Amino acid sequence: MSTPLKIDFVSDVSCPWCIIGLRGLTEALDQLGPEVQAEIHFQPFELNPDMPAEGQNITEHITEKYGSTAEQSQANRAMIRDRGAEVGFAFRTDGQSRIYNTFDAHRLLHWAGLEGLQYNLKEALFKAYFTDQQNPSDHGTLATIADSVGLDRLRAEEVLSSNEYAAEVREQEQLWVSRGVSSVPTIVFNDQYAVSGGQPVEAFVDAIRQIIREAKG
User: Fold this and answer.
1) 8 A C-beta contact, residue 185 and residue 14
2) What pTM does this model have?
3) CATH code of the domain containing 131
4) Which residue of 8, 64, 77, 189 has the fewest C-beta atoms within 10 A of its own C-beta?
5) Residue 112: which domain range?
6) Which of 202, 116, 201 minimizes the C-alpha distance to 152?
7) Is residue 198 within 8 Å of 24, Cβ to Cβ?
8) What is the pLDDT of residues 67-121, one digit of tens each?
């Protein structure tokens, strides 16, 4: 019998480990097949909530935030590119890439969840930012991405030009921080088991099988 699995995937669209973790998770779910009946909900987390609209150069930002040198930043990007390739995702960021504010992307994701297209939009946002070097804070870009996954472009523009879903997103962000989430991705299963980071497929398979065993008592 299939075990129901509620998955809260707390993440940011500008977090490379989040797409690596998401690909690892979905591959694990594919491997588990009928053992689980999973439902993924994307929850908002902003790595850089104070980032201005024009964004910031990625190397400059990483140096300021973590004290990394340009060489360390480049080596880290190379490692992320390799991990991405392993899960079928192309990272094309380089030393000239920029970090942007992602709050409006999270508002759009909240709306997409109500429309049943949240997963599609999340994947498209990751690709737009990391593969196509697009700006996930630009309203025109966001509306085009929404349209590309089957969401209504005019409605997307309406959401973006207002403060719609801002309160809901902030409330969710505060909720997950209050539950102890301080880094992403954090993947919470059935409101009680958490896995952090861009884990490989096997780690997710093992964790989910453990949850299934405990659920069956």
Assistant:
1) no
2) 0.96
3) 3.40.30.10
4) 64
5) 3-216
6) 116
7) yes
8) 999 899 999 999 999 999 999 999 999 999 999 999 999 999 999 999 999 999 9
